[in-house]
Amino acid sequence: MKKILFIIIMLCMSQLVFPQETEKINVELKNEIKANLFPLFWGISYERFLSNNFGLGFSTGMICVTLSQELDGGPDFRSFAGPYCRYYYNVLFVEADTPIVASDISLGLGIGLKFSPLLKNKHLIGELFYGQGHIFDNSKNGTDYWRIGVTFGVKF
After folding, report:
1. CATH number, residue 145
2. Based on the structure, what is the number of domains in the chain?
3. Structural domain includes residue 129
4. From start to end of the chain, where are the E strands?
5. What pLDDT score was predicted for residue 17?
6. Cβ(97)–Cβ(83) under 8 Å?
7. pTM recorded for the entire structure
């Protein structure tokens, strides 16, 4: 048992001492403009990279609010605009956003995959992402929303 525990500890320490090289996002081109092409949602966003693994941006578009009883179970789409920040690890990213949805403040989180490092042209970018959030409106419990994205754009 002691040998197994020792091996596990050594493996964990080797990952900390000798981390693997990560694929870096090209930060020579620090700006991106993207359009969401998912059929149900539309949106446009701008992002500025501050380092290899961190970016700040602003997006606007439509989100789908959780199905509500007032609409007989149908989806409720609302416009949004607001800032977001992203942390990148290889081609994966985690996003936190605080959009204003129909004059109400909200808070959301998302995850995604950026496949621009996989493309041969360094100016073209593409992303897949999914996110959820909560709108702090006047209703008793607030309202949840979700976003799905298939975005394409350019780096400059």
Report:
1. 2.40.160.20
2. 1
3. yes
4. 31-36, 43-51, 54-65, 76-89, 92-97, 100-101, 104-114, 124-136, 143-155
5. 45
6. yes
7. 0.75
